[in-house]
Amino acid sequence: MTQVFFVGAGPGDAELITVKGARLLKEAEVIVYAGSLVDRELVRSYAPDAEVYDSAGMNLEETTRVLAQAALDGRKVVRLHTGDPSIYGAIQEQMAELDRLGIGYQVVPGVTSAFAAAAALKQELTLPEVSQTVVITRLAGRTPVPDRERLSEIARIGATLVIYLSVSMIEKVVAELLQGAYTPATPAAVVAKASWPDEQVIEGTLQDIAGKVKEAGIGKQALILVGDVLRARSEGMRAKSLLYDKGFSHGCREGIVT
Ligand code: SAH
């Protein structure tokens, strides 16, 4: 069947692609990948002989033409995206173009960079009684953000935030967050190039994180994480989860009554 596979490459580490994604890459004859974010070595390590296109210098018409032609020629074709394709991946318009051309496709998920950043920090993002909600968001850049999702509005919830595509505007991020439920003492972290060999982790509070990030010269491939969950490692946990509590019964285990 004629089809294109949209594959999540994961956050960087070549071992953080899914088994299915790796298999599809190995089998691929044609690969279009986002060279600005996906490591060329990752592509080459899985598919040394494939015909490879870097989408960084291509527009939607050009990437669609390559994907469609390869699929129509009966060649195995992968469109490789960084992290998970559904998060700021611009895949919807590519799928719409393939729909228009009557070409089928499948999406294979990947590990989004938020989870690589949490792993780098060794931090659970959902702690009982602290936050049970994670918001993935960004500041408006050239891509606008709907008005009701302004960071200052989102900040009213006070949940754990993972902010993509915004580290170059970190002062503005901090200013907007302080209009919500966060305070200058709220912990914040920036993880750059999560899971890459040159990964960088910067930790602080909303008071000092912007200065620390500028000082470290963090590039744009970085995430900002904010929220009281980040306090757990330095100040200890307030509440443990019930899941492994010895007195808590659930479908797989009887609690011990003392
Ligand atoms: N689809 C991707 C996100 C693409 S948008 C994903 O699921 O991760 C690009 C933004 O993602 C960057 O500006 C940065 O904020 C973030 N990003 C991607 N890879 C990253 C990494 N390895 N470490 C930190 N941030 C990363």
TrEMBL record:
Q: In which pathway does it act?
A: Cofactor biosynthesis; adenosylcobalamin biosynthesis
What Gene3D superfamilies is this protein classified in? Cobalt-precorrin-4 Transmethylase, Domain 1, Methyltransferase, Cobalt-precorrin-4 Transmethylase, Domain 2
Q: Where is the signal peptide?
A: none
Could you tell me the Gene Ontology terms of the biological process aspect for this record?
A: cobalamin biosynthetic process; methylation
Which residues are in the Tetrapyrrole methylase domain?
Answer: 4-209
| GO MF entry, a single one | precorrin-4 C11-methyltransferase activity
- Tell me the superkingdom of the source: Bacteria
The UniProt keyword set, sorted, is:
Cobalamin biosynthesis, Methyltransferase, S-adenosyl-L-methionine, Transferase
Which PANTHER family does UniProt cross-reference here?
Answer: COBALT-PRECORRIN-4 C(11)-METHYLTRANSFERASE, SIROHEME SYNTHASE-RELATED
Which family does the entry's similarity section mention?
Belongs to the precorrin methyltransferase family.
Q: What is this protein called?
A: Precorrin-4 C(11)-methyltransferase
Provenance organism:
Geomonas silvestris
Corresponding gene? cbiF
